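If I may wish for something, please sit down with the protein I am sending here and say whether tokens and residues agree:
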Amino acid sequence: MNGIELIHSGWGKGSVRVAHAPAGLATVLEFRGGLLSALQVNGLTDTPDRLERGRELINYCWGTGNARALVPKEYTHVATGKPGGLSPRWKLGFGTGDSLAELSATASGRFPDALRYTGPPARVRLEVEKAHATVAHSSISGEHRSQLHVSSGPFRGTLALPGPGIIEVACLAKWSLTVL
């Protein structure tokens, strides 16, 4: 992963204002923790009239690698946190959906990731070594999110991609996606 500068940093719990992409483009969050990090990143709405924690965007655990996820437009901030224990160091930055790597044949990783898909409706083969995995599809603008897959433990099977959009893979184990 490259292209998104990780300009914000902190330790343990923190909050960063989202630098949203221009209209029509998805906002991408790129996050990196330290070797012993176990952190969650949630969306946060923080305005003079409202303070509300949103859904989990990234679950990051043990290792050195970058994770990516989309940030819905309704969130004004992202919040990092860890339930007790150490307060690990983190870095994050924001980019646009058009800067994501394209899923054209095969993609793999071991942290949550977001990929751009520009092809027609297709079948993809998902393989997950172990652990929980979720795969979601959003429009190129980052809207209209739909969940394509949820599993616990190892998985090998096919999913239907509805067409162009952004594919989010939330998994903390080795995974791969192959367009069939």
Observations:
- Residues 26 and 102 are 14 Å apart (CA to CA).
- The radius of gyration is 16 Å.
- The mean pLDDT is 91.
